[in-house]
Amino acid sequence: MKKLFYIMAGLGIILLVLYTYLGGFTAPDVKVATSETMYVAGQAYTGSVEDEQMGKLFMRAAEVLDKKELEGTLGNIYYNDPDKSGDSIRAFIGVIIPDSAAKLPAGYELRTLPGGRKVVRAEAEGNISLLPRKLYKAIYDYAEEEKLKLEDFYVEWFPAQDRGIVEVPIKQ
């Protein structure tokens, strides 16, 4: 019995160290900001968040950057909250590019997000597998604390290795 306890304690310590290394305990920086104009090149998706097609679109966006078909950073637009709409999501998955003049890869289209809107913005460092959940939770907690109403419209991007940003417009 004692041996099992030590094994479980050792495993727990290893998992705790791994979670810390991946940025699990890093607190996001959350604030109200003014959005900037963004150009997102990508592909639209509507369906379940569990559908493999959505995963393929994420992989295609990473491939576009790896093959230098576009210069930019991974970025996505979400037009609804799947937690509120029964696992169905409307999204645009792709790459945030510096300007609208870029030649787009086959199958990609361009969407422009106008700037000048008040948004709740969360930024954090950590592993990309942990960042989205952490950033969205921080935004929702901040909005609740500050009594802000948010739109069901989300923009997320990953400007550097192990860095993520999410912006959600504030309802006017």
Give structural notes:
Keywords: Membrane, Transmembrane, Transmembrane helix. With 172 residues, the chain is α+β, with helices and mostly antiparallel strands. It has one domain (29-169): Alpha-Beta Barrel (Multidrug-efflux Transporter 1 Regulator Bmrr, Chain A). Helix content is 30%, strand content 35%. The chain has helices spanning 2-21, 52-66, 131-146, and strands at 29-34, 38-48, 73-78, 88-97, 109-113, 118-125, 154-160, 163-169. Strand 7 (154-160) and strand 8 (163-169) form a beta hairpin. The chain is globular, with a radius of gyration of 18 Å. The termini are far apart. Residues 17-23 have low confidence and may be disordered.
Counting structural domains, the number is: 1
Q: What strand line-up does the widest sheet have?
A: 1-6-8-7-3-4-2-5
Determine and state the CATH class: Alpha Beta
| CATH superfamily heading | Regulatory factor, effector binding domain
* Fraction of residues in H or I helices: 25-40%
> Measured on Cα atoms, how large is the radius of gyration?
18 Å
Q: What summary fits the major beta sheet?
A: 8 strands, antiparallel
Provide the succession of SSEs.
HEEHEEEEHEE
Structural class: alpha+beta
Write the layout of secondary structure elements.
Elements: H1 2-21, E1 29-34, E2 38-48, H2 52-66, E3 73-78, E4 88-97, E5 109-113, E6 118-125, H3 131-146, E7 154-160, E8 163-169
Pfam families: GyrI-like
Keywords: Membrane, Transmembrane, Transmembrane helix
Organism: Pontibacter aydingkolensis
